[in-house]
Amino acid sequence: MATRDIKGKTLLPVELFDELDPAPRLLMGPGPVDLYPRVLRAMSVPIQGQFDPQFTGYMNQTMALYRHVFRTTNEWTFLIDGSARAGIEACLVSLLAPGERMLVLNFGRFGHLLIEIGNRIGAEVVSIEAPWGTVFEPAAVEAAIAKHKPKVVATCQGDTSTTMLQPLAEIGPICRRHDALLYVDCTASLAGNPFETDAWQIDITSAGLQKCLSGPPGSAPITFNGRAADAINHRKHIEAGIKAPGMVEGNGPIIRSNYFDLAMLMDYWSPKRLNHHTEAASMLYAARECARVVLEEGIEAGVARHVEASAALRAGLEAMGLALYGDARHRMANVTGVYIPKEIKDGERVRGQMLEDFGIEIGTSFGPLVGKIWRIGTMGHVARMANVLRCLASFEAVLRRNGYAAPAGAGIDAAYKAYEAD
Ligand SMILES: Cc1ncc(COP(=O)(O)O)c(C=O)c1O
What we know:
422 residues; alpha/beta; Aspartate Aminotransferase, domain 2; 2 domains; 7-stranded mixed sheet; two-stranded antiparallel ribbon; 38% helix; 15% strand; binds pyridoxal-5'-phosphate
């Protein structure tokens, strides 16, 4: 089709492409995963302006709902518009001025992301490293904090790249003892594994929707306490165009991002409603509905469903003669790493056939694990028996086509048994 300008001159041909019609998929990678149908529906309701009283009511409700999801009484609980790393970046850039020290507990790809973001901010980044497939002991963390005296200690709870879950209950109190702020990236673990913002003394944390919350990528729920808010407000600077007499600024160094400035975002999400960005209304509807679904099921029940699904999947994979990756004591309840057996020459071909022939997406791997493991997610809406069984049955067939013959039906039988044992 060609379009014309107002004088009738033919312009470049326009290719309109087809209407969107994505093939049905079962998303069993490390995220994103299938959306709760209610979340999809919530995204199709009409938007409103961000200062419409009904919409600010929805904003307040979203804050209230995420306090329960994060298990906190923190006033400052809201959304960052952007994918999960937008939440990470907002927390770190708002806390850390150039030259200030951050200690990263690095046990996978997303620990490296924390280091990368810290370096871009100009922070002085130091890290301790745990071999991939393991996590840190509290004593090692305490020794590093005592040595480096950081302003901020940053870690992932669950790092999807290694499928490991860092225990956190003891890390918060250690940070308090050494007067450091604790930041946790709980993107991949929230709502599928226990997470206790207040009880574990986590000062500031951020997530994303596209893992156990079963929403679309593009919104990052965060929460932070008074300690973190004080550190951030100390750096508060108000845009000249919206500054009014009587507004108080901090005297610390300015936060080096406008979009991710949590000091300004607190004013935007508070009754002051001081203008900042235009809220991503459809994403807020999605985030609000994700929280409603999760809380309606109950956090404990939801975590138990994740534990059950991953236990059944793991039982099935092991019955097929496959070896699981990583320290068994510290696996996340929502993603499983499985070694590619030596009989399989091309792990990517297996993933391709799972997708093309069965419509099931499973995950590849990063860094030192490339070509060594696949990662299979059982999270959010996907973490249920029918999907575990579909995945195992398809996997057995695809592995056989690629030269690895698992005992016929063993995976399915073991998964059934695991479910029946509950
Ligand atoms: C632990 C963790 N942190 C951060 C991210 C980054 O999320 P996003 O791609 O939404 O920015 C991911 C994504 O897989 C993750 O697993």
